[in-house]
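Hey,

The postdoc asked me to send both predictions to you directly instead of through the lab channel. I've kept everything plain text so nothing gets mangled by the mail client. Protein one:
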Amino acid sequence: MFFSSNTLKASALAALASAALVSSAPAHQKHRQAKAVYFQTNSPQNNIMALPVQQDGTLAQGTMTPTGGQGLQEIDGMSGKPAAPDGLSSQDSVVVKGNNLFVVNSGSNTLSMFKIDQQDPTKLTMLGQPVDVNGEFPLSVAVSPKANMACVASSGAKAGVSCGKFSSAGMGQMDELRSLGLDLQQTTPPVGPTNTVADLLFSRDEQTLYAMVKGNKTQSQPGGIAAYPVTDGTPATTPVSNNGINGTAVLFGTTTIPGTTNLFATDASFGAAILTSKGGSTLSLQSTAKIADQKATCWIAISPFTKTAFVTDVGANHLVEMDTCTGQIIKEYQLTTPNQGMIDLQAAGQFIYALSPSANVSTAIQVFDVSGGKGMAKQIQNFLPTGANATVQGMAVKL
């Protein structure tokens, strides 16, 4: 086929113009917005609530789908009664990976798996049946797409970590319970919030599985991190123990920091910390940041848009933005909504979605717009999901 020199020149100019358009595209176009958010009711008949995300990032009423399992709350160590809000005292009780959703059922000791409809992300279809996790009071799930594996942390009388393979047919049988490297000496349900598992997550390369354990500031129960190296797609049966890391006490919700092997962890006793990884399984403290008016800083998400961390507190109605390199506070946003505080949260595109359960006012999801950049978050919605009560837990998003 023959092209004239004029045609070639025109094609080259068009290509350059197209490249210029792509390079000058607004930053937010490079970050996918959420299509739906999900959390669990953690009620006697457990359900997943799925809410659609509208074009402006706000939420609308959605669906409620039974998990096939039961919810349960831990016992509050101060009152001796079932804890609410934050009955699981954990992060990542609901996780979305690709088109699949995973949720723990703390009252029936099971894990459920769902397929998310690609046309309507609030439509969930259970894959197979809920599987026994071989532990008691499961409260956090971590998923490795690379290994087609889901792992669950349990924190009751039978505490530990178990894992199982999944497929398009659902979850396979979970393996034997791994030790946490600490004897929690707990009951089912556990008495908390300290001396229980807080979170379970894979490293960014999915070569290490971390279980975060909350200490109670005593020598006998120092808390720490159980790290399980992954070999041939399976986490080790015995963890590398990182117990009683100096400068930490009540390690809670944790996430990996993009572009590094480090972890950004909340600590309910003071604020947050950055933990540096040496060889994957051995962790040490890099830095800490104290939040002056915090009650229990326990949950974290890193925004892909601002590249900063946001942490929440069940007892203080504020959102705190932090630097992922230094760990220092960028800004504290004091909120005027009547909510008690916030727990599980997720960052997607230009927005932050934070679950705000309460026994005294209506349970809500607080939505924040971070399109203004670092230090410029704005609350745009305090959404009240129909059917949500004080026991709700978890937060996941479908991109």
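Protein two:
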Amino acid sequence: MRQCLTAPDGGYYTTNRAGRDQFGQRGDFVTSPEISQIFGELLGLWLTAEWHVQGRKAHGVEIIESISNFKTLVSSVEDIYLVEASPWLRATQKELLCGDCPFQEVPIGHRSISKYAGLPITWCEDIRFIPNKPDKTPFIFAHEFFDALPIHAFQSVPPSKTSSQTPSSPTGEISLKAPSPEASKPQWRELLVTSTVPSSLITSTSQSKEPKADFQLSLARASNPSSLLLPSQSQRYKALLPVAGSVIEISPESHSYAAEFARRIGGSTKPNPSRSSALPPAPHKTEPSGAALILDYGPSSSIPTSTLRGIRSHQLVSPFTSPGEVDLSADVDFTALAEAALSASEKVEVHGPVEQADFLGQMGIHDRASQLMRTLDKKGGTRIEVGASGQIQVEERKKTIKEAAERLISRLPGRGMGTLYKALAIVPERGGRKPVGFGGDV
């Protein structure tokens, strides 16, 4: 997944193909901020509410991957960081946010100045490059971020007398002097991406115009380091091991990011095994502060299984066809993110996941949509200016506002964004008091 999405040459997000954009109606998918301006406004409101709950800190506020337009909060913001691996998307964001301001190279990435608030904006490829200072209050926003991180897939196989006794490793197979005692027990085997049989050797009567997949998932012949380690780290996975044929998906990189969010908010006295030795150790944080808001799609409590998918032109396609030209994603394991965050820092709480419809409903999506429509009515007339596109009917604009808001909270079975998408919050420990949007208030 990482290679197909972010490889420097030919990666889906890192390659700017002439005449083609991944986003929007003409691209491969549409995200919530593009559907309605209300989505971004309510997320900014959530961050502002958390800032109020935590005492309205006057200095040291950082916003990571999000920009708020609330003046009271912006007056306390010192740094804005955007985590973006794509060079051409960074350039697009810079043009939108900073205009003609210089785009300077800095040790962790690039920096410019916002043309809206005069604040410094720094782009980097990984949140772990951002300095982690104990006196900072980071507000972290991750929207449709975790679904694009690489996964491992494993399948439970029953014990077999003929099962291989030569576990594989990156350097080859390992010969065992004696049969492993694990051979008599169910085992996890990794589902590996392998090349398909050359199409010239396949006789097919299919009339489908879809290109044949270049790759496929194949069950490993023996255990490997990933299958021995990753499923052993949670009781949730261990409980499924005796059920032959069970398939689970695990994203270690997702766990690492959730843990990093928690450490930046709550601090930690525990060592960070995922942090590169080239990076300085995280300093001790005496007062937990900040918050992280994660919005993505996946089950509320169950383990994702067989969810790797390809998306092209708003349609689901094989993830093994046209590498680098198809968006890849997998469902997010929200319970695993919560476990990783709570294990990383003793001073944080996790709330959610809650369905996006409930989150946006509590944040006031209906009230905001009504307010926007009343504003149009107060302007009078039957037409309004919409920039270069000319004029449109007021009633048509009001209908668009209403339908866009309803789309974000739709509960249509199997495809409604209001139920498919979930929200999860990581906040400083405070006795279980719920954040706004998760059943709490300011």
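Summary for protein two, as requested: The first helix runs from residue 2 to 6.

Thanks,
C.
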